[in-house]
Amino acid sequence: MIVIDTIKLVTKLNNRLRQSEVRFDLFRENERGVITGVINPTATDRKLGVYKPRITYTERPRPHGRDYELAIELSLPKLVYGNNFNELSEADFDQVLFMLRKVLREMQIGFYFSPQLANLEVRKIDFCKNVVFTDGTLASAIIAGLNTADISKVYDVQNTDFQNGGKVLHIHTNSLDIAIYDKITDLQRSKISEKRTQEKDGYCQLNLLDELEKIRKAKHPFAVVRFEVRLNGKQKIQKEFKKLGIEEPLTFKDVFTDEVAKRVLTHHWENIFSKVQKAHLLQDTPISLLRDILSETTQRPQEALARLGYAYLSAHTNDARHIRTLFDEAIGRQAWYRIRNIRLPPQRRQLKSLIFMGNTIKEMKATKLEDYDIS
Predict the structure, then answer these.
(1) DSSP state of 341
(2) How far lies 361's CA from each of 92, 327, 364, in Å?
(3) Can you tell me the distance from the alpha carbon of 90 to that of 78, in angstroms, rounded to the nearest whole number?
(4) Are residues 365 and 331 in the same domain?
């Protein structure tokens, strides 16, 4: 299975790409003589949910002439499926090339054939995996568990963000970015604005949000945690691949393999998971108890809070007779009989859920929406 989402492909041109040949949204020259032209999805595309790549044309002055370069940045699963919940496999490469060639022609960038596209240089690549939980695990529980990891012991960390009330963990390092987030919540936010979302171009997959919401209502519980490793820039990709023993060249066809994706994702998952404070995840804190209680769905809010109070009290005293005496004295002798059957929280699941996520990443089985079909 290929777990690549966004990729940036670059090619050198022999001649200038003229404005009369291509519809540019922006075409300008800076003080150093560098000319940049940009083509984005149109307002009509966005309104209709039609996904298209972002094209950047760059022209740079050189001592003996000028260099001409074209960059194509796109989400491969959005190109093929219209969303990035569905994941591609190595067998999909010909279809990817066909659809990329087709959309480039529609955008008037129509001078590519499949062999040319397959050999384009890769300048940016995001490896991603969607992990689905149907056992009551909350996305915030996964992210909170990973946030206990001492990341500085495995990465040269510039910044770590724990954002949106525990819905996003974003690790910035000198060579890459890693993001772990609640995909359903991110889609909900993109429906309002993309400014604070992890994913861009959410306009093409708003119908995905509707589908996931239907599944969540029909098959509750249902949560999706997305794990992304983002390599931006040729040098960063080269450094990462060298460390993992992945041979170049950095062409589209060479990175579109199961082996490359698996090495990158499993390496960084193991880096993070190895530093998670496992003992901390097994402690009975009020938050951890509430999280486990809420993972069960057949209860009212009042019952959840009652179970929390009873569980916390039980965890901090061995004198059940004294607890009963307090209720008898304050409320009456029948009070204890009304509460004695309150259920204790289920067994701690946070660490178990993290292990499941790691196994899912290593298994590398493609996630497909059809696997959760409710029709």
Answers:
(1) T
(2) 20, 49, 5
(3) 16
(4) no
* CA-based nearest residue to 51, from 226, 256, 205: 205
Q: What are the pLDDT digits (tens) for 264-314?
A: 999 999 999 999 988 766 666 777 767 676 766 566 777 777 777 777 776
**Domain membership flag for residue 365:** yes
Domains held by the chain: number: 2
* Whole-Å CA distances, 297 to 17, 291, 292, 301, 312: 58, 12, 11, 10, 20
* Residue 263 lies inside a defined structural domain of this protein: yes
Instruction: State which amino acid sits at residue 136.
Output: G
Beta-bridged to residue 160, according to DSSP, are 171
pTM: 0.82
H-type alpha helices, 67-113? 76-81, 93-106
Instruction: Give pLDDT, residue 175.
Output: 78
The whole domain housing 77 covers 4-277+355-372
Q: Do 164 and 309 sit in the same domain of this protein? A: no
What is the spatial distance between Cα 355 and Cα 273, in angstroms, rounded to a whole number?
9
Which tens digits make up the pLDDT trace of 134-193?
888 888 889 988 988 888 888 877 667 666 566 889 898 877 899 999 999 888 888 777
Question: Side by side, which strands form the sheet with 4-13?
Answer: 26-29, 35-39, 54-62, 65-75, 4-13, 121-133, 223-232, 177-182, 168-173, 157-163
DSSP string, 106-145: HTT-----HHHHHTPEEEEEEEEEEEEE-SS--HHHHHHH
Contact between 8 and 71 (Cβ < 8 Å): yes
pLDDT recorded at residue 102: 93
Can you tell me the distance from the alpha carbon of 184 to that of 348, in angstroms, rounded to the nearest whole number? 24
Confidence of residue 343 (pLDDT cuts 50, 70, 90): low
Within this chain, do residues 224 and 310 fall inside the same structural domain, yes or no? no
